[in-house]
C-alpha cells in the first residue's frame, strides 16, 4: 500500500496519536507516498465530468487541499486563480512546492472559512477529507462552502456506492472506524477520521438544508456494480443563481 517514499510504521503511529492538524503536519513530507493521496485516476475522471458538464469556470476552491493533488485539475478547469484551503501548515507547504505559481494557499479551518473568501468562487471541490468531519459538523461545513460560492457556483466531489456487508472491504472500514472510536475514547487529543460517517442520503439532506440543489453524474471510468448502478458518482451541489451571501 505504501511506496518506499512513504512513512514508516513508527511515523504513522506517532501521527495517529496526534491531533488531526499536528498529525498531518508530521505526515506531510511523505503524504504523497501513501494510499491516502487521491489517485490520479479519480482526479482525471472528475475533471473529465466537470469539463463535459460545465465547461470552464472562473475561480476555484479546493477545500482541505492537502498537498495539492486537486489543484492542478482546478487550474485547468478555471480561467482565474484557484485557492487551496487546509488546516495543516505542513500540507500547505507541500502544496506550495508542487504549485509555486497560479495558486493561493490559505491556512484555515474548513468549518470557519475566512470572510474574505465568501462569494468568491465558481467551483469548489474536495477529495478524501470528509471523514475528518463528524455528522453534526456537516451543516457548518456545507454552509461555509455555500457562502464561499458565487450564485450559480458548484460544489463537486466524488461519492462511492455503498459497500455491501458481504464485502471484505466493508469489514475493513468498519474495523478501522471501531478502532478510531476506541482510540478517541481513551486518548487525547482526538483524531477524527472515519470512513462510514458520510452516507449519501443524510449528506444530500444537509446540502439541501444549506441551500444547495443536488444532482449526481456517473463516473464511467470506474464501471458499474452488478445491479447496473455506478460504482462512483460525481455529486454536484449547486448554489442557486437567485441566492446571495
TrEMBL record:
GO MF annotation, one: methyltransferase activity
Name by which UniProt lists this protein: Class I SAM-dependent methyltransferase
InterPro entries recorded: Methyltransf_25, SAM-dependent_MTases_sf
EC number, UniProt record: 2.1.-.-
Pfam family, one: Methyltransf_25
The keyword Ubl conjugation is assigned to this record: no
Lineage of producing organism: Bacteria, Bacillati, Actinomycetota, Actinomycetes, Kitasatosporales
Domain of life assignment: Bacteria
Enzyme class: transferase
Keywords, sorted A to Z: Methyltransferase, S-adenosyl-L-methionine, Transferase
GO BP terms in the entry: methylation
Stretches assigned to the Methyltransferase domain: 61-153
Amino acid at each position: 500500500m505504501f511506496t518506499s517514499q512513504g512513512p514508516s510504521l513508527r511515523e504513522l503511529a506517532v501521527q495517529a496519536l496526534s491531533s488531526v492538524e499536528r498529525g498531518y503536519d508530521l505526515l506531510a513530507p511523505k503524504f504523497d507516498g501513501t494510499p491516502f493521496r487521491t489517485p490520479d485516476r479519480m482526479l482525471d475522471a472528475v475533471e473529465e465530468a466537470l469539463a463535459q458538464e460545465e465547461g470552464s469556470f472562473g475561480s476555484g476552491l479546493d477545500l482541505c487541499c492537502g498537498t495539492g493533488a486537486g489543484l492542478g485539475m482546478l487550474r485547468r478547469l478555471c480561467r482565474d486563480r484557484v485557492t487551496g484551503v487546509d488546516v495543516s501548515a505542513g500540507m500547505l507547504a507541500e502544496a506550495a512546492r508542487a504549485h509555486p505559481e497560479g495558486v493561493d494557499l490559505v491556512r484555515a479551518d474548513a468549518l470557519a472559512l475566512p470572510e474574505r473568501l465568501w462569494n468568491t468562487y465558481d467551483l469548489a471541490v474536495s477529495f478524501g477529507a470528509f471523514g475528518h468531519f463528524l455528522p453534526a459538523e456537516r451543516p457548518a461545513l456545507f454552509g461555509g462552502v455555500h457562502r464561499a460560492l458565487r450564485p450559480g457556483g458548484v460544489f463537486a466531489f466524488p461519492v462511492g456506492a455503498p459497500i455491501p456487508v458481504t464485502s471484505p472491504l466493508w469489514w475493513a472500514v468498519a474495523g478501522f472506524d471501531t478502532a478510531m472510536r476506541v482510540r478517541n475514547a481513551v486518548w487525547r487529543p482526538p483524531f477524527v477520521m472515519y470512513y462510514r460517517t458520510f452516507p449519501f442520503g443524510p449528506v444530500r439532506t444537509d446540502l439541501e438544508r444549506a441551500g444547495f440543489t443536488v444532482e449526481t453524474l456517473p463516473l464511467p471510468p470506474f464501471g458499474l456494480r452488478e445491479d447496473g448502478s455506478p460504482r462512483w458518482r460525481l455529486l454536484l451541489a449547486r448554489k442557486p443563481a437567485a441566492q446571495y451571501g
